[in-house]
């Protein structure tokens, strides 16, 4: 960000130029001189700040959905929040996670490639303990999963991808599907070690147990939809095409909607004294001739002109004219 000089700094700079302490030509040369910045090819920058902000917004929603899902499944206090979204080489991610952890490898059509949802053993075993009737306490020593534990884990995390699908709906409709569950990071190689990934880290609290959940998304997976992660995509309104079934349901509901219809015989004004003394048989003179049509309003809008009558001993009104939008003002006058 460009620094803004205060008024005192501007005055001091002008005074130095006037006194000869500083040379304007030297300042121009410094400005023209090429600025060199260090670039690490092992940490290639593939995601812009704009992309990182979009990924943060998407996965903040994902965190809220996960909080609701796990709270209902585990029947205990669960809190999940996004704490960091960064880009780094895949190899650095593998080296940063425990040697024994829960790795949910999944795909999300139509995106090509595999992604990983890494769950810290403390969090995973606390979930497992709750699902099997315990208090949700992680064991002090982490052992390999048994077949039963693996099956329970797969069922727990397979349904978390419904929340991921919901969170990504604003960008693209994806269909996440759990491919495998691993516990050793060394046996998992979804991309080359130098491939840049987006790493979304979630702080997770289940009862008194805390830990991290990390979502690893390789750049090569998101590359086809990178333009959709821009601010322009988020804030430019897009018209959603309605499917025929939605249109038909909407039409049915409109047809069943009830609207008040009022036929006005006319209007008149009386005093409060006259109103209090009204009795059976009194006649009120209206402001409209007998041979003039009645105004028929739908809601508050004048829509028809009709004449009074009766059908089967019930009062009725016959529509004789349809009032167009332009002619409505003439009738109101």
Automatic annotation (TrEMBL):
> Which InterPro entries does UniProt cross-reference here?
CheC-like_sf, Flag_FliM, FliN-like_C, SpoA-like_sf
* Pfam families per the UniProt record, alphabetical: FliM, FliMN_C
The alphabetized list of GO BP terms reads:
bacterial-type flagellum-dependent swarming motility; positive chemotaxis
Supply the alphabetized keyword list. Answer: Bacterial flagellum, Cell membrane, Cell projection, Chemotaxis, Cilium, Flagellar rotation, Flagellum, Membrane
Question: Mind telling me which GO cellular component terms the entry cites?
Answer: bacterial-type flagellum basal body; plasma membrane
Location in the cell: Bacterial flagellum basal body; Cell membrane
The way it spans or sits in the membrane comes to: Peripheral membrane protein
UniProt domain Flagellar motor switch protein FliN-like C-terminal: residue ranges: 252-323
GO molecular function terms attached to this record: cytoskeletal motor activity
Q: Tell me if Membrane is a UniProt keyword of this record.
A: yes
Family stated for the protein in its record: Belongs to the FliM family.
Q: What is this protein called?
A: Flagellar motor switch protein FliM
- Give the gene name: fliM
């Amino acid at each position: 960000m460009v620094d803004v000089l205060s008024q005192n700094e501007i005055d001091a700079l002008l005074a130095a130029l006037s006194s000869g302490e500083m040379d304007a030509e030297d300042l121009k040369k410094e400005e023209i001189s090429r600025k060199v910045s260090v670039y690490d090819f092992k940490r290639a920058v593939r995601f812009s700040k704009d992309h990182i902000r979009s990924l943060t917004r998407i996965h903040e929603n994902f965190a809220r959905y996960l909080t609701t899902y796990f709270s209902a499944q585990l029947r205990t206090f669960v809190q999940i929040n996004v704490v960091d979204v960064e880009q780094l080489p895949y190899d650095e991610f593998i080296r940063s996670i425990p040697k024994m952890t829960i790795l949910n490898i999944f795909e999300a059509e139509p995106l090509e490639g595999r992604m990983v949802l890494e769950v810290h053993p403390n969090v995973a075993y606390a979930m497992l303990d709750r699902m099997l009737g315990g208090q949700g306490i992680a064991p002090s020593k982490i052992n390999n999963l048994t077949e039963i534990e693996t099956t329970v884990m797969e069922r727990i995390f397979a349904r978390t991808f419904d929340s991921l699908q919901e969170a990504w709906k604003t960008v693209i409709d994806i269909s996440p599907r759990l491919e495998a569950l691993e516990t050793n990071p060394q046996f998992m190689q979804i991309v080359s070690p130098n491939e840049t990934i987006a790493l979304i880290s979630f702080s997770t609290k289940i009862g008194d147990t805390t830990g991290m959940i990390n979502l690893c998304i390789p750049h090569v997976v998101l590359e086809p939809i990178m333009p959709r992660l821009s601010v322009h995509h988020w804030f430019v309104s897009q018209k959603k095409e309605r499917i025929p079934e939605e249109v038909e349901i909407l039409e049915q509901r409109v047809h069943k909607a009830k609207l008040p219809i009022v036929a006005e015989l006319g209007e008149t004004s009386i005093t409060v004294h006259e109103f209090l003394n009204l009795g059976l048989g009194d006649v009120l003179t209206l402001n409209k001739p007998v041979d003039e049509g009645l105004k028929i309003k739908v809601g508050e809008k004048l829509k028809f002109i009709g004449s009074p009558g009766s059908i089967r001993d019930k009062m009725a009104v016959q529509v004789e004219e349809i009032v167009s939008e332009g002619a409505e003002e003439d009738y109101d006058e």
